[in-house]
Amino acid sequence: MFRVIKSRAEAIATVCAQGQPYELQELAVNGYRHRIFVNAPQTLLDLYRDNLSDMDFIVYEEQRLSFNDVYLQASMLAAAMVTDLGIEKGDRVAISMRNYPEWIIAFYAATSIGAIAVAFNALWSSGDLADGILDATPKLIIVDQERLDCLGQCEGLPAALQIVRTRAVPNVQITSLDWSDVLREQRGAAMPTVDVDPDDHATILYTSGSTGSPKGVLSSHRAIINALLSWELDECLLAEMGIHSPVELDFQKGMLLAIPLFHVSGLLVSCLMSLRAQRKLGCLYKWDTEAALALIERERLTVCSAPSAITGDIISAGLRSARDLSSLRIIGGGGMHRAPEQVKAIGGFSDLLQPHTGWGMTETNGLGVGIFGNDYLTRPESSGRCSAVLDIRVVDKAGDELPCGEKGELQIRGTTLFSGYWNQTEATIQAFDGEWFRTGDRATIDEEGFVYINGRFKELIIRGGENIGCGTVEDAILEHPDVIEASAYGVPDGRLGEEVGVTLYVDKEISDDQLREFLSDKLAVFEVPRYILQQHIPLIRGDTEKIQRRQIKLEALELLGLSAAQDD
């Protein structure tokens, strides 16, 4: 029987006290004092070594790798990187593939030797991939068949770029090394010894801005590891407060890897958190509801953390399916708000199944606020309360903090924040108000500390967990010779949260299919508009001659038969 503490502050004081596993202390990080975990691993390599075992870690189709297997293969790959491929501390190693076991092995290897693992979006077009390579300037890129073929279409690739292919046959247009051959040369090699500091850079994950190309979010070993321990702490707090008591199981816990590893939630929440918890990862090549249900049943998976579109698919299909999904204990995740009906459906799926959600960003290493169980069922519109290692506030346009209940921009500070945008000093400066990160999200905080996200100041569309910059879509469309003006916006969608819509001022009518074909090599698949509205008059502009995006969106929703009330 666990002790009930009603106050979250009291629970934090108990669980994070001196001598406790989650003891917190203040430390100067990047010029500011932040709370960190005293007992945290210092680097990602320490994290990997602390969690070795013969238990299953990765399950992909018929392939099964233990935690030890992954580390041993990563050691051989790391040795090859250092000895054969000339990778040094601080070099970038890009990973561009689907959720194969090799993705995780490559990440292990790169971060263990002090290289920076660069996670490229596997859905990028060949042009996006070329831009990513020119931006991150990796010395090595590891790709699967689709991405290898994509590289073959890229122009102007650096001559010095080394390519390792996995699950792929050679492409005559491009020189590459085979994964198996690379590892064979270092069979049985130990992990190389490299001096890595906690505040050294570990990852670059790309996120879409409201305009222009994706920005590379640079994070340190310390930031990532403190994010991982913060999620663990949240579970301890729930037990300490009497909200949730972890259920003992007679089988290994497992996570459905339903999110691409190039996303912060896939990499940290699904993968690295599973490492800490000794959970196995059930991997899918891409999202397939029936395949997911079969994997949950076969492997007795216990957790699924994913956008609302995916969890909605699982719940709705699961209620109709004859498959045994009784192993599931927790389902939810971040991204767009779940409809209250979906939250209630999760709570009613099984007495053992608990819903959760949260809010975080790539820039915060996915950490921010979270909510679980009955708290979520009674507050389905809330994203939760702030992590114990972070601080949040809501400010007005002048940057002054607002009282509880008033709407403004959500800002956040703490140990898990990113180091800056790769090669974008000005964007990094603009992203911060002193030590506070400007999220660009509109929010309120109630008197109990629960955060409610009310929309965005940034011009972003969030489709199934993918951030899409409105400016990125518009720039691509404006390359068409018959398009004079364009305004992109999010259209509410019951499954994906939002779909991409666009209103165009055109010289002459263009068929939707022709426009989508034109955009196919300029935008990622998920960025191509589903809704296209065309007109032969200029778009609405205000007194400053700025396009009135909000009004254009509202008019589009009306034409599409969607009420303004459905809009955020």
Word description of this protein:
By secondary structure, the protein is of the alpha/beta class. The protein is built from 17 helices and 29 strands. The strands form 6 sheets. Strands 4-3-13-12-14-15-16-17-18 form a 9-stranded mixed β-sheet, with helices on both faces. A hairpin with a 7-residue loop joins strand 10 (about 200-205) and strand 11 (about 215-220). The longest helix has 20 residues, at about 220-240. The protein is globular. It starts with 7 loop residues before the first helix and ends in a 9-residue tail after the last helix. The model is unreliable at about 565-568 (pLDDT under 50).
Entry summary:
The protein is of the alpha/beta class and 568 residues long.
What radius of gyration results from the CA coordinates?
23 Å
Number of continuous helical runs: 17
Principal-axis shape equals: globular
Count of individual beta strands? 29
CATH class label of the domain at 63-196: Alpha Beta
Which residues form runs of ≥5 with pLDDT under 50?
Answer: 564-568
CATH topology of the domain at 63-196, anyone?
Answer: Rossmann fold
Mean pLDDT: 90
Strand fraction: 25-35%
End-to-end distance = 43 Å
Main sheet: which strands, in order across?
Answer: 4-3-13-12-14-15-16-17-18
The assigned CATH architecture of the domain at 63-196 is 3-Layer(aba) Sandwich
Main β sheet profile = 9 strands, mixed
Helix content: 25-40%
Secondary-structure content class: alpha/beta
